[in-house]
Amino acid sequence: MRHDPRPLLAKRFPVHVIWRINRKVWSLRPGRLPKVLKDVIVEAVDKVALSTGMQGLGVRVARAVNKVMGRSGNVVSDRYHAKFLLNPTMVKRARNCLLTNAFKHYRILGPDPFASRVAVCEPRTWLVRNQV
């Protein structure tokens, strides 16, 4: 797959980051891995910091998943996809996507039990501060 260069990261815009998990790996939702996923938050001030943070997060998640599953190999199947949130509507839609993800993928009714409904850290951008 061809990779286009990533756009520059502007401090004033939040970024919605999505990973595709390898199909051979268990779901990250059940109670097997919540501690690893809950304790790691990536908030970056520039493109290099985001890339480095996502690589570090990917390594931590892969090690934890592989240890629990007794396997080796990749857990994240491709690079992360980043979407810049340029206005309040885009932030609201991204937040709604996170909160309804369980229904979309697993048909779990109600709010996603693994999605945070309150900010877990103080957002740096005004777009996100106004939405939480």
Short description:
The chain contains 5 helices and 2 strands, in the order βααβααα.
What is the H/E string?
Answer: EHHEHHH
Shape, please? Answer: globular
Structural class: mainly alpha
How many β-strands, per DSSP?
2
**Helical stretch count?**
5
Global mean pLDDT: 80
Biggest sheet overview: 2 strands, antiparallel
The domain tally reads 1
Strands of the biggest beta sheet: in what spatial order?
Answer: 1-2
Low-confidence runs of at least 5 consecutive residues: none
Radius of gyration equals 15 Å
Q: How large is the share of residues in beta strands?
A: 5-15%
Helical residues, percent = 25-40%
Distance between termini?
36 Å
SSE order and pairing:
Layout lengths: L14 E4 L15 H5 L8 H23 L11 E4 L3 H12 L1 H6 L19 H4 L3
Antiparallel strand pairs: 1-2
Report on this model:
With 132 residues, the protein is mainly α. Helices cover 38% and strands 6% of the residues. The chain has helices spanning 34-38, 47-69, 88-99, 101-106, 126-129; strands at residues 15-18, 81-84. A two-stranded antiparallel ribbon has the order 1-2. The model has no long low-confidence stretch (mean pLDDT 80).
Keywords:
single chain, 132 residues, mainly alpha, two-stranded antiparallel sheet, 5 helices, 2 strands
